Amino acid sequence: METADNNQDREFWDRRYRQQHRIWSGEPNPQLVAEAGTLEPGYALDVGCGEGADSLWLASRGWQVTGVDISAVAIERAATHAAAAEDPMQGRVQWVCADLRSWEPPARTFSLVSLQFMHLPEPERTVLFARAASAVGVGGTLLVVAHHPSDLTTAVPRPQRPELFYTADDVAAALEPDQWTVRVSEARKRLTAAPDGASVAVHDTVFSAVRLA
Fold first, then answer.
1. What is the pLDDT of residues 118-153, one digit of tens each?
2. Which of 28, 80, 114, 156 has a CA 20 to 30 Å removed from the CA of 51?
3. Full set of structural domains in the chain with CATH
4. pLDDT at 8 over 60
5. CB 78 within 8 Å of CB 69
6. Closest to 115 in 3D by CA, of 135, 95, 97, 88
7. Conformation bin of residue 27: beta by default, left when phi > 0, alpha when psi is -120 to 50
8. Binning pLDDT at 50, 70 and 90, where does residue 90 land?
9. Looking at the predicted structure, is the pLDDT value of residue 4 above 80?
10. pLDDT tens-digit map of 37-52
């Protein structure tokens, strides 16, 4: 059973998606492309899949993907985008409307679990990381990408809630160190556009680790 807070979050995201025809760019997140582009396709879990761009990119590269999002509106939109694709992905994407704070994915099932810009406060964030990590099979990859705390001071709009931002070290601290080999742990610089069109440097928290046991 979902709590009232979970229902409020679902209503918030459904309302936000209904306000615009498309919220996100429709392109896969660049750090996902950078980190997953060389992985052997297998089973992937896309946590917070939104309108489905990351899930569809993975499916186009041969992955069997489960895309999960709290918003039913986002899931419906993602499914519509998949159906409209020139290649309908041959059934390689399954869409699930669920909240990872209350829904537990199948344990040790996926060869890639991706969390792109999932910003929750503590202690919910640690719960999210633990559930996502539990879904990674031996030899699989956990990939977490987020806005770095340093982005609070850039010209690019960010929620002025420091408790929502975290570093790669924060992700690592939520894992059992003897069960993982860390491959990437950094604040990665990239350029993006500010509201006035100027090019601005921001930094993404990027954490990637492979499960050993």
1. 999 999 999 999 999 999 999 999 999 999 999 998
2. 156
3. 4-211 (3.40.50.150)
4. no
5. yes
6. 135
7. beta
8. low
9. no
10. 999 999 999 999 999 9
- In total, the chain counts a number of residues equal to 213
Give buried/exposed letters for 184-203 (b at 16+ CB in 10 A, else e): bbeebeeeeeeeeeeebebb
Contact between 10 and 99 (Cβ < 8 Å) = yes
pLDDT of res. 115: 98
Q: Are 132 and 113 in contact (CB under 8 A)?
A: yes
For residue 106, give both structure tokens.
């199948």
CA angle 201, 61, 213 (to 5 degrees): 85
DSSP the chain: ---HHHHHHHHHHHHHHHHSS-SS-SSPPHHHHHHHTTSPP-EEEEET-TTSHHHHHHHHTT-EEEEEES-HHHHHHHHHHHHHSSS-GGG-EEEEE--TTT-PPPTT-EEEEEEES----TTHHHHHHHHHHHTEEEEEEEEEEEE-GGGGGSSS---S-GGG---HHHHHHTS-GGGEEEEEEEEEEEEEE-TTS-EEEEEEEEEEEEE--
